[in-house]
Amino acid sequence: MNRLFTAFALGAVAAQAQTKPLPKNGGLTDERPTYSSPAEAQYKLVEPKLRTRWTEQPTENPWPEYPRPQLKRDNWLSLNGVWELQEAKANDTDAPFGKTLNQRVLVPYCLESGISGVALQLQNVWYRREFEVPSSFDGGVVLHFAAVDYRSTVYLNGKEIGSHTGGYDKFHFDVSDVVKKDGKNELVVFVNDPSDSEVVPVGKQRVEPSHIFYTPCSGIWQTVSIESVPKGEYVTAIQLRAAADGKVNATISTSTPDSSSSVTVKFLQPNGTDVIYTTQGKANQPFQFSVDFQPELWSPASPNLYNFTVEVGSDVAQSYTGFRTVERKEIDGVQRFVLNGKPIFQFGPLDQGYWPDGLHSPPSYEAMVFDIKYLKDLGMNFIRKHIKVEPDLYYYAADTLGIILMQDMPALPLVAPNEAEQKEFERQLDIMVNSHLSFPSILTFVIYNEGWGQLDSSPEIQIAPRLYDALAGHQLINAVTGWNDYAKLRLNISVGDYHDNHHYSSPQCGTPFYSRASIQYDRSRIGFQGEFGGVGVNTTIDHLWKDDVAIAAIDNTYEIDENLDAWNYRALRVIEELREQTERYDCNGGVYTQTTDVEGEVNGFLTYDRAVDHTDAEKWKAAIQALYDTFNAKVANGTEGAAIVNTNADGTGAAMRAVPTMVALLLSAILVAVTL
Questions:
Q1: Which of 133, 292, 389, 498 gives 20 to 30 Å between its CA and that of 202?
Q2: Hey, is 606 helix, strand or coil?
Q3: At what angle do helices 460-471 and 419-434 cross, to 10 degrees?
Q4: pLDDT over threshold 70, residue 570
Q5: Could you tell me which residue, 403 or 272, shows the higher pLDDT?
Q6: What does each C-alpha distance from 594 to 39, 138, 395 come to in angstroms?
Q7: Which has the minimum average pLDDT: 15-29, 95-109, 147-161?
Q8: Distance of alpha carbon 494 from alpha carbon 480, whole angstroms
Q9: Which letter does DSSP use for residue 554 in this model?
């Protein structure tokens, strides 16, 4: 294959761009369709800077899958499809009721993406569409948004029904008193998205993308839907954490938050409909129970899941869970990551979750699951979902396919937040954790990535105990992944379960050597390589993100190899270093950068369009298996009777791994005073 180097690639892009520079979004050129009147506007795909095999999506019902697999009802309607769109002014309150807007957009795709049909950075917009309620909706009606970036105000039939702040979490409104059961309903949504022009959780989104920072995502980027609910009380959230010993912690929230109505939970036979266990509790308060059957446990090797139903009054919601217990244990004097009583070596990629045609929005469920299946087939048992939150269906796919997830909190921009910004970050962190802790595949939550938006006063000292209380022993916490472990550096406080090192390209996993801004290996926590590798390989213009700025930044990659032979040699060399460190030192896992190329980064297993696999698959499978074999041999003795360091599965003893909450707060306050 003839591989083109940067200078040739830049020339090819310049030729395609013709007389205009490429826009800072997902469109290949600045050309956009224009119409003589709003009524004549139509949806049309904007040619993206790089296509995938899934780029062409149906406009009638894209993403037709039910969006909330852990709280499912049968009677629902997707509102995905072509909506009207129009640019707005900041804080615009003049809602365009009864007016045809001048553009068309395909929901649910980021405004900046080619698939959306807009491919523009628009900070303020109006969305509009009409819909009819199905005749089968014989009760109340709830309107759901799976994710809108960033601030949204929602109107139905001329009435403001609510607003929301945050680009990564789902929200809903009960519209029973506003919706029309007979005739058309007008839904209007105002969206404001500052991206990184404000200090808000953005992950890797940037108004001005540059190498490791990518094109932003604005607007409605996940599914919009309505569903029928009972006219009275109904279930609004299900938190259920099932441990390997059959003990279960549950909280069932309802539309009447102060009620204590009876809740009935029924577990079903795997792959069947027969009820095998029934219990009861009270709504809107935690309750515990132990199932009377021996559960088949969830793990990457055997991702066993159990369906169950939740009944409150006349409402019946469907959900699922997996029984598993994750712990931090001391084994032969070393802290280990333990799943269902067995030490596990976690290995997999840093996964950005970006797409050249949809950006934050995967083109389809099939496309999204392709990435997970690819990694699983290569022998990996783990994914670090990097400072982005995916649709709930992503976590369902990980649960069913069997792959461990480490879920990051989307980071703030690279500036220190003020008091209000820090408070909002923590509010959204709490929401992210509480809305994802029931997914069996998520075994760890990450608070901070490499100090991005992290105060040097160590707020993680205060945050971690609160999260441990919420998790009740069901997940571990990686408080500071990579760099700037201020609590350890300044107060000798080990916050969280992991000592997480980042180093490129060679790892430093649980080793007696390290490089700044990581710190010396802390033996009181799990030794873990949170990022390493990042070896890049040159590719042809056919598979590059066709943006001149992104291509010019390719040589910022940690290492660029001329061809696949060289890349496989170099990448597998650093994998072997990880294996050697596992054998010699205290390494418990590693995160290789990364699943795919992304915009100006060319260090993926796959090209950005998922069309070219860089790996010599058989060599990689053997190298990955060697990691597991080496780790298993090292921990073969001493797994019995090991001391459990984390909280119990039932939540007793929940506290920060370092110090009690009040002491942590006091020390944090002292540190703030010192730094001021």
A1: 498
A2: strand
A3: 20
A4: yes
A5: 403
A6: 45, 48, 19
A7: 15-29
A8: 10
A9: G
Over residues 142-164, the mean pLDDT reads 98
Q: Give 561's strand partners.
A: 537
Q: How far is CA 367 from the centre of its chain?
A: 16
pLDDT tens-digit map of 7-19:
323 333 334 434 4
**Angle (CA) 407 409 410, round 5°:** 120
Q: What is the pLDDT of residue 114?
A: 97
* Upstream peptide bond of 505 is cis (omega within 30 degrees of 0): yes
The two tokens of residue 545 are 């993100």
**Contact status, residue 491 vs residue 459, Cβ threshold 8 Å:** no
Residue 369: how many other CB atoms lie within 10 Å:
18
Torsion region of 587: left, alpha or beta (phi above 0 gives left; psi -120 to 50 gives alpha): beta
Q: What are phi and psi of 508, to 5 degrees?
A: -140, 65
* Three-class secondary structure of residue 385 per DSSP: strand
Cβ atoms of 228 and 307 closer than 8 Å:
no
pLDDT > 90? residue 272: no
Of 447, 539, 555, give the one whose Cα is nearest residue 496.
Answer: 447
The two tokens of residue 134 are 């199905």
Range list of β-strands (E), 306-415: 306-312, 315-321, 326-331, 334-339, 342-343, 346-351, 382-385, 404-408
CA-nearest of 356, 302, 272 to 53 is 356
What is the per-residue pLDDT across 521-547, written as a single tens digit (0 to 9) for each? 999 999 999 999 999 998 889 999 999
What per-residue confidence (pLDDT) applies to 23? Answer: 52
Are the C-beta atoms of 503 and 522 separated by less than 8 Å?
A: no
Asked if residue 641 lies in contact with residue 331, where contact means CB atoms within 8 angstroms, the answer is no
Secondary structure class of 530 (helix, strand, coil) = strand
Confidence label for 663 from pLDDT (cuts 50, 70 and 90): very low
Query: CA-to-CA distance for 433 and 463, rounded, in angstroms?
Result: 12
Q: How confident is the model at residue 20 (pLDDT cuts 50, 70, 90)?
A: low
- What is the set of domains in the chain, with CATH numbers? 38-227 (2.60.120.260), 235-324 (2.60.40.10), 327-634 (3.20.20.80)
Residue of higher predicted confidence among 548 and 593: 593
Percent of the chain with pLDDT over 70: 91
Tokens in use for 115? 């698939």
Q: Is 273 exposed, middle or buried (0-12, 13-18, 19+ CB in 10 A)?
A: exposed
Over residues 576-600, the mean pLDDT reads 97
Distance CA 18, CA 143 (A): 44
Write down the pLDDT at residue 200: 98
Helix (H, G, I), strand (E, B) or coil at 524: coil
Q: For residue 511, give the DSSP letter.
A: -
Mean pLDDT, the chain, as a whole number?
Answer: 91
> How far, in Å, CA of 275 to CA of 244, rounded?
20
Could you give phi then psi for residue 449, rounded to 5 degrees? -110, 115
Q: What is the DSSP string of 138-206?
A: -SEEEEEES-EESEEEEEETTEEEEEEE-SS--EEEE-TTT--SSSEEEEEEEEE--GGGSSS--TTB-
pLDDT category at 365 given cuts 50, 70, 90 is: very high
DSSP 8-state secondary structure symbol assigned to residue 220 = E
Give CA 74 to chain center in angstroms: 26
Question: Residues 283, 312: contact at Cβ < 8 Å?
Answer: yes
DSSP H helices in 435-521 = 460-471, 486-491
